[in-house]
Automatic annotation (TrEMBL), chain A:
PDGLE domain ranges (all copies): 8-52
Subcellular location per the Swiss-Prot or TrEMBL entry: Cell membrane
Identification of the protein by name: Cobalt ABC transporter permease
The keyword Membrane is assigned to this record: yes
Record key words, sorted: Cell membrane, Membrane, Transmembrane, Transmembrane helix
Lineage, uppermost ranks: Bacteria, Bacillati, Actinomycetota, Actinomycetes, Propionibacteriales
Major localisation: membrane
Source species: Nocardioides agri
Residues annotated as transmembrane: 58-81
Automatic annotation (TrEMBL), chain B:
GO cellular component, one term: plasma membrane
UniProt membrane topology term: Multi-pass membrane protein
Organism: Nocardioides agri
Key words, A-Z: Cell membrane, Membrane, Transmembrane, Transmembrane helix, Transport
Lineage per the UniProt record: Bacteria, Bacillati, Actinomycetota, Actinomycetes, Propionibacteriales
Transmembrane regions: 12-29, 41-60, 72-93, 105-125, 145-165, 177-204
Keyword Cell wall biogenesis/degradation: no
Organism domain of life: Bacteria
Cellular localization per UniProt: Cell membrane
Protein name: Cobalamin biosynthesis protein CbiM
GO biological process: transition metal ion transport
Pfam families cross-referenced by the UniProt entry: CbiM
């Protein structure tokens, strides 16, 4: 089998992440998640102090923005760590 | 399982905050040794992928949903230390941009979803690699089982934190039963998603999966030995 290049794997994962956040997320279950449901059932949901995030709610556009922000931040941190490690090694 | 502000009291949140800062600090140092030509380009992508998949809540019974946590997935793909960094970045962005998880609860959420699931996921994965036959085809299965186990364990860590600093007076045994039960179901989804994602990358480029490295080294050894014999 022909070896798939790293660039294609990188592009593939990025494309999948963007499609999941931008399109597939529309079909996500809107029921409360495990902890939220347990909090409602056990009677401590009222202790939540809710607030607004900078981008509001998850949606196709904000989801894609989120993916890009996470990619930039996590990619940036690991890139910086790698550069520093390489410099220490040389 | 994103904990909002208000569920845990200030002292408990402060302690989890300190633990989270310490864990991320150690991870920043240790991750350097994990980041090489192959894992470095993967790290940001793994974080972005986990963020995207966390948006996809799936149903787990009547009126309840769950989503991927991603700790085991990150650990297997890029290594445990880098994995802690990846999931922590996801949690930071979710909290700031989407108010998904509190600000004072960020430390708690890092302890639960970045540290607990990565540590449990990685340990179970490595244990299974030792116990099961050394085959590449088993790596996604081992990753899936590790991911499955990591979710109810993280739920139990939450119950432990709630026992110490929960702001409402509720019976802990029913809280534990409820949390463990629903998160065991969510764990099945976690295991399936993790197994599929690891399987997809193992199929095209096993060398990009950090948890598959020991098998590749072994494989090369076998081939070289055969060449010498010939």
């Amino acid at each position: 089998m022909k070896r798939v290049s790293t660039a294609w794997v990188v592009l593939g994962i990025a494309a999948v992440a963007l499609v999941l956040a931008g399109v597939v997320s529309r079909f996500a279950d809107s029921d409360p998640d495990g902890l939220t449901k347990v909090a409602e059932d056990q009677g401590f949901a009222h202790t939540e102090q809710s607030r607004d995030g900078l981008l509001g709610d998850y949606g196709s556009v904000t989801g894609v923005v989120g993916v890009l922000v996470v990619l930039g931040l996590a990619g940036g941190v690991t890139y910086a760590l790698r550069r520093r490690h390489q410099r220490e090694q040389s | 399982m994103h904990v909002p502000d208000g569920f845990l009291d200030a002292p408990t949140s402060a302690v989890t905050g300190v633990v989270a800062v310490a864990a991320v600090g150690v991870a920043l140092v240790k991750a350097r040794t994990e980041l090489d030509d192959k894992t470095a380009p993967m790290a940001g992508l793994v974080a972005a992928f986990i963020f995207a998949v966390q948006m996809l809540n799936f149903p787990v019974g009547a009126g309840t949903s769950g989503h991927l946590m991603g700790g085991a997935l990150a650990a297997v793909l890029v290594g445990p230390w880098t994995g802690i960094l990846c999931v922590s970045v996801v949690l930071l962005v979710q909290s700031l941009l989407f108010a998904d998880g509190g600000i004072t609860a960020l430390g708690t959420n890092i302890v639960l979803m970045a540290v607990s699931t990565v540590v449990v996921g990685w340990l179970v994965f490595r244990l299974l690699q030792v116990l099961l036959p050394k085959r590449m085809s088993l790596v996604p299965v081992e990753a899936g089982i590790a991911a499955f186990v990591s979710v109810p364990v993280a739920a139990l860590v939450f119950v432990l934190l709630y026992a110490v600093g929960g702001t409402a007076d509720i019976p802990l045994d029913t809280l534990m039963t409820a949390m463990f039960g629903v998160h065991t179901l969510i764990g099945i989804g976690e295991g399936v998603i993790t197994g599929l994602a690891v399987g997809a990358i193992v199929a095209v480029r096993p060398d990009l999966v950090r948890g598959a490295r020991p098998l590749l080294a072994r494989r090369e050894l076998v081939i070289k030995k055969a060449e010498v014999a010939a």
